[in-house]
Write a structure and sequence with these properties.
180 residues; alpha+beta; 9-stranded mixed β-sheet; two-stranded antiparallel ribbon; globular
Amino acid sequence: MLIAFNKPFNVLCQFTDRSDPPRRTLAEFDLPPRVYAAGRLDYDSEGLLLLTDDGGLAHRLTDPRHKQAKTYWAQVEGTPQDAQLDALRRGVVLNDGPTRPAEVRRLDPDPALWPRDPPVRFRKTVPDTWLEIRISEGRNRQVRRMTAAVGLPTLRLVRVAMGNVALDDLAPGQWREVRS
């Protein structure tokens, strides 16, 4: 079984939390029994999370050797210059080594997304831009670190696809079974 789930902002990609006070987890979303996240999506990121009850499938979805492409929409602070976008396309050097090249394009118009709670801060004097970024790695906070490395801090990050599975019209907290 493979489940596509739209993970809301500030929800952990696990079913329990031992922090005090506890944070929101997957347990509150009435997901099928015995499924677990195939990979992760940061607590402060939103969008597509795949869950499965098949360990082999989870491995194929998350192992870097399989180069499963992940597509994100990133709202970044500022107006990207061509040199910044080209640096992302070539790959940037992070503290844990160089990244693979990314596919990057500006989204114009801005994507029609659900409101985030709490909303992203708005500053009249600082523009923001939405980018579509497609990577084939899955390092910890990779997209955020890549955009920061080129001077474009990420304000909001939404994963919209993993491989051939897209978020489509799932609202935050909703899920659907993916037919293979």
